[in-house]
Amino acid sequence: QDASQRYFCGIAGKWFACFSCETEAEPLPPTGEVVGVDVGLHTFATLSNGKPPIPNPRFYRRDEADLKRVQQRKDAAKNAQNWPENAKQKGILAKIHERIANRRSDFAHKESRKLVNTYQVIVFEDLAPMELGRSRGMRKSILDVAWTQFIQMTVAKAEEAGRRVILVNPRNTTKMCATCGEIVPKALRVRVHACPHCGLVMDRDENAALNILQRGLQTLRQ
């Protein structure tokens, strides 16, 4: 594109040159594999094929103590009308938040790339209705885990690679038994799906991932 379309932006005291360009898509060789992915807070993502889950890195939680300490220093400087110190602590806060955001982005890029390289079709829950109505504390954890960013990156990479991402209705994916289809209510703290109807016992997230996969396969058959 025309070089005149470049621009500069400043973030947390750093400057970046930003520009856009057009590139040719490079489809990956077909794999024929379909996977359901259940994202969560206990683990970041659980796959329907039984492969090891992706651990939740909890980037915000890891730096939460530092953020709280710097925020307290900033508030103290503001109350004392020590504006130079207030500005200094504000800059430190911005750098910590930038570090957290960079780690999240890097993690999401790497994990989404692994999925796209491996699977032809990737099935997620449509998270928009799920994230509404959460408690304040849970919303904080959801923001930390950044599911939406991860899924959006997966979608973008899939389009370039000739893969497909399907978003399915999230209703009862955790409660429904992946074997018999019966609804088995369970509290969030209960980590095992134990179906009293058919006897299936497995990790609750693996059960959800299988239900997500099945809904994705239904979409493919339509």
CATH class category name of the domain at 33-55 and 111-221: Alpha Beta
Q: Architecture of the domain at 33-55 and 111-221, CATH level 2?
A: 2-Layer Sandwich
- On the 0 to 100 scale, the average pLDDT is 89
Overall, the morphology is flat
- Tally of DSSP β-strands: 8
Task: Identify the strand order in the major beta sheet.
Answer: 4-3-5-6
Main sheet? 4 strands, mixed
| Span of the ends, CA to CA | 40 Å
Low-confidence stretches: none
Helix content: 40-55%
What's the Cα radius of gyration? Answer: 22 Å
Helix/strand order:
EEEEHHEHHEEEH
Structural class: alpha/beta
The tally of helices reads 5
| CATH level 3 topology of the domain at 33-55 and 111-221 | Nucleotidyltransferase, domain 5
Model description:
The protein is α/β, with parallel strands linked by helices. It has a domain of 134 residues: Nucleotidyltransferase, domain 5, CATH 3.30.420. The chain is 45% helix and 16% strand. The chain contains five helices and eight strands; from the N terminus they run ββββααβααβββα. A hairpin with a 2-residue loop joins β1 and β2. The longest helix has 36 residues. The two termini are 40 Å apart. 25% of the residues are buried.
List keywords for this structure.
Nucleotidyltransferase, domain 5, 222 residues, alpha/beta, four-stranded mixed beta sheet
Brief digest:
With 222 residues, this protein is of the alpha/beta class. The chain contains five helices and eight strands; from the N terminus they run ββββααβααβββα. The chain has helices spanning 59-79, 83-118, 136-145, 147-161, 204-221, and strands at 7-11, 14-18, 34-39, 45-47, 121-125, 164-168, 192-194, 201-203.
